[in-house]
Amino acid sequence: MSTTAGTPNTASTANVSSLASSKTIKQIGETAWKNRTVKINAELFTLTYGSIVSQLCQDYQRDFKKVNDQLFSMGYNIGIRLIEDFLARTAIPRCDNFVTTSEVISKCAFKIFLNITPAVTNWSTTKNSFSLIFNENPLSDFVELPMDASKELWYSNILCGVLKGALEMVQLDCDVYFVCDVLRGNPQTELKVKLNKILKDEMPAGED
Amino acid sequence: MIYSLWIFDRHNCIFDKEYTVNQSTSIVNSKEQQSRGKLIYGMIHSLKSMSTKIAPGNMLRTLTTGKYRIHALFTASNLWIVIFSDLTHHELHETLDRIYELYLKYVVHNMLKPIDFKESAGLKESKKITSPSFIRAVDHVLCL
């Protein structure tokens, strides 16, 4: 019996575990964005999302906490599917630490799906939580929140859900939430990702 | 000659198909294969963790025995796609990638079906991929 365990050879299967340079991750993201992504009109996307949020506000009679939750759960359901899409496009293996994960999220995932690269900062001392700072956010272009919404609504909360769902599928149990948003009058848009624990790979029931 | 195709997700075997009988009556998701599925899972799981332990970041790709060769694709979401073939196929990784794309197209992108194949409490048998278009497309990729 012989096993062959080849080394990855193409850029898309570059070994992330050995990546001292985050350049490779950036390249993977850019290649996937250029070659493997179907683009749609950004304004159409922005307006569609806007109309979803405004419809939700109407449906929940401006109970913005419920709107936040609903956006989050919509995002979650997107995230658990989107991760497969992401993995198929990039062929990235498991990251071996959370720092790598953050780089992949910012330079690959956001690059491929939204063509933005949020900055990763505010690491906790234990390296288990970080912030993403959005200098641009295609979801919230042209948006102004009405007075009553600007205190409670997290307009782009769907992003939190997407990240939560996607990370959960690669066995990372995280809390994802917005800390501040320019739409609320804060100086920047900041999203926090906090790792709770790494879930164990499940083993199927063995022979009885 | 392809002998069989297996797909495992985080919880269980979610698809298996035998090509060894004649093609029109090939067996999909058969019950008799369940125990074999567990054996395959066990074997690959051990070899996979062994090869990663010996060289970190290393991945199992193919495995050759006297009579057959196993080709495997592992994703970070813990999906395994495994093909058993005869010894004439040296590399099937493009085929594996194509099957992953089909999985994406017919299973992941199908919003009407749940993405998670976890056994629900009331159900004794585990869930499988049953989409006929998926099976047809897979046959197309494998049998040409």
Automatic annotation (TrEMBL), chain A:
Compartments (UniProt record): Endoplasmic reticulum; Golgi apparatus, cis-Golgi network
Chief localisation class: endoplasmic reticulum
GO annotation, cellular component aspect: endoplasmic reticulum; Golgi apparatus; TRAPP complex
A Pfam family per the record: TRAPP
Entry keyword Endoplasmic reticulum: yes
SUPFAM superfamilies, per database record: Ligand-binding domain in the NO signalling and Golgi transport
PANTHER family: TRAFFICKING PROTEIN PARTICLE COMPLEX SUBUNIT 3 (PTHR13048)
Protein's name according to its UniProt entry: Trafficking protein particle complex subunit BET3
From TrEMBL, chain B:
Assembly notes: Part of the multisubunit transport protein particle (TRAPP) complex.
Annotated Pfam families: Sybindin (PF04099)
GO CC entries: endoplasmic reticulum; Golgi apparatus; TRAPP complex
Entries under PANTHER family matching the protein: TRAFFICKING PROTEIN PARTICLE COMPLEX SUBUNIT, TRAFFICKING PROTEIN PARTICLE COMPLEX SUBUNIT 1
Keywords noted in UniProt: Endoplasmic reticulum, ER-Golgi transport, Golgi apparatus, Transport
Taxonomic placement: Eukaryota, Fungi, Dikarya, Ascomycota, Saccharomycotina
Official protein name in the record: Trafficking protein particle complex subunit
InterPro entries from the UniProt entry: Longin-like_dom_sf, TRAPPC
Cellular localization per UniProt: Endoplasmic reticulum; Golgi apparatus, cis-Golgi network
GO annotation (BP), single: endoplasmic reticulum to Golgi vesicle-mediated transport
Similarity field: Belongs to the TRAPP small subunits family. BET5 subfamily.
Main location (coarse class): endoplasmic reticulum
Matching SMART domains: Sybindin
Organism annotation: Kluyveromyces dobzhanskii CBS 2104
